[in-house]
Amino acid sequence: MSDNHLPTAELQALDAAHHMHPFTDSAELARKGARIITSAKGVWLTDSDGEVILDAMAGLWCVNIGYGRQELVDVAARQMLQLPFYNTFFQTSTVPAIMLAKRLAELAPGDLNHVFFNGSGSDSNDTNLRMVRHYWAAKGQPERSIVISRWNGYHGSTMGAASLGGMKGMHAQGGLPIPGIVHIDQPDWWSEGGDMTPEDFGLERARQLETKILELGADKVAAFIAEPVQGAGGVIVPPVTYWPEIQRICKQYGILLIADEVITGFGRTGNWFGCQTMGFTPDIMTCAKGITSGYIPLGASIVSDEIFNTLDAADEFAHGYTYAGHPVACAVALENLRLLDEDGIVERAGSEIAPYLKEKWESLTDHPLVGEAKIVGLMGSIALTPNKATRAKFASPTGTVGYYCRERCFANNLVMRHVGDRMIISPPLIITKAEIDILIDRARLSLDETLAYLN
Ligand code: PLP
């Protein structure tokens, strides 16, 4: 047992008795006991038994800068002393919120120059949903209210965000989606591309947006929302033809394009934002996670001049969260962005680490269980399959093999997540080449153990 806590078994029992976990089978948790993480540094976690684990998921896709940065602690402490809270409602503001909005406007592409702060990715997407409807109403087109999104997209867990998402298991609980949100298919060539080339498939999936707009009537559609690269859906990297066609369609029909950059923002894909890597310019970006490297919660909706000017001329947007522009969160975000920039973390992740990780990650395709390996920047996935040539699925229910592999990774002190039978990674951007070698070795060992189990 390390320093300051109860024995692991006692913590696990208390956890199972009193702590309700998100997206967790509580019966299984009670049976197995949670793995309790007590400290972290760089890319390494330490658990309550003193085991040291390589975190190839950056927490929950968020600790871009890595664990243990004293600078972030210092600015948070200073800000808490100076001004722990003040709101940004009713004609007041705070210095950290102002300076962070300015910095985000500098970093964001195109004319995305205006920032509405939120508390998380989910509530940022709720903001977006209300904002695009308010925008069209302000333009005299209130009937333009439908938002199109994608099956197997993930946009959060609130009623609005879970409806925007396309996770059928989430929709099944509580009667989602809410009205006014419709879904089209995802650009997942491996699972759904059949005999098409990835390029043709990318075009076909993008054109589903056009078909849907024409079916609904362009004058009824407010916006299309998507992740530049689906994260929680399994790190689905779209074919290169996909995004240019989506951008064309949105422009042609005057549909607002919302890029949900909650995962793909702040260096994850090798550029500051995923839309830059994928080659399109949205009207709104949803940000959270990497904005503070997860050290403290914060979300943001960054919007274009056109949206801002329209809202500015309209009735006040009757929307806002108490913690919007929280001064401590904004101060931490500013320092995080300074370090990501001035320490060259985003630059190095894109130019040096991403190519190395790509080579190593793709080398896993020589493993008998691995079909495709996809990676963009520092987010990657491998598809597990019993037959690479036919891209077959396992006979067992989807996710059984992926879950087993994930458990082997965990036992081998590697955090790698599974989505169905895809294994995914999203390590801190500060991961070194030597640490990538360890990641790959542990992944390969876990794949071997999974293969042995299947045989
Ligand atoms: N959007 C995307 C793309 C996400 O991946 C997530 C969370 O993983 C969210 C939104 C929701 O963010 P939060 O969990 O901060 O509410």
Short account of what is shown:
With 455 residues, the chain is an alpha/beta fold.
Write a structural description:
Helix 5 (95-107) runs parallel beside helix 14 (327-342), helix 6 (121-138) crosses helix 13 and helix 15 (345-363) packs parallel to helix 17. The chain has helices spanning 8-18, 26-32, 58-61, 70-82, 95-107, 121-138, 159-164, 168-171, 189-192, 198-216, 242-253, 274-278, 305-313, 327-342, 345-363, 400-411, 433-454, and strands at 37-41, 44-47, 52-55, 112-118, 146-150, 181-184, 221-226, 256-260, 284-287, 299-304, 370-376, 379-384, 414-415, 417-419, 422-425. It is globular and about 65 Å long. The strands form three sheets. It has a seven-stranded mixed beta sheet with strand order 4-10-9-8-7-5-6, with helices on both faces. A four-stranded mixed beta sheet has the order 1-2-3-13. The mean pLDDT is 97. The two termini are 38 Å apart. It is built from 17 helices and 15 strands. The protein is of the alpha/beta class. Helix 11 links the parallel strand 7 and strand 8. Bound molecules: pyridoxal-5'-phosphate. Pfam families: Aminotran_3. Its cofactor is pyridoxal 5'-phosphate.
Q: Write down the overall mean pLDDT.
A: 97
Cross-sheet strand order for the largest sheet: 4-10-9-8-7-5-6
pLDDT < 50 stretches:
none
Distance between the termini: 38 Å
Major β-sheet annotation:
7 strands, mixed
Q: Which secondary-structure class do the elements indicate?
A: alpha/beta
**Share of β-strand residues:** 15-25%
Instruction: Name the shape in a single word.
Output: globular
Count of strand segments: 15
Q: Kindly state the percentage of residues in helix.
A: 40-55%
Oligomeric grouping of the chains: single chain
Cofactors, ions and other ligands in the entry: pyridoxal-5'-phosphate
State the helix count. 17
The Cα radius of gyration reads 22 Å
